[in-house]
Amino acid sequence: MLAQPLRPPSFGRALLYVGLFVLGAVIGAAGALVQPAWFPGGLLLALAAEAGLCVGAGRAVGRRGGSVAPAAGWALAVVLLTTSRPEGDFVFAAGSGSYLFLLGGIAVAVMCATLTPVRQPDDDPVRLGK
Fold this sequence. Notes:
Number of strands: 0
Number of helices: 4
Order of helices and strands: HHHH
Distance between the termini: 17 Å
Low-confidence stretches: none
Mean pLDDT: 83
Shape: elongated
Strand content: under 5%
């Protein structure tokens, strides 16, 4: 039961993962704009939004991919927003709030993706040594 070959996800599940990826990117961009506006509260709000999305998606989907998809979208959006443009415009200033948002968001994404409950086999419980 546990050693089955990997199969690609169905079309509906793949579409769900793409939607969660885009939603994670939107949360990352919104968090990048909110966190410097109201410094301590905005930072906590942005990180709580990311954590809520990753945990909620993981529990709703029931697989780890549900948490990884929005976390990857968040990370991609934030990394793309860290680059400066030729005109000199940038989103993240060199301050402690920006670094806390980047590092805290990565930590939240890793924790949510790691702690998401994984699908268990439906057969009788199996224990080692039985």
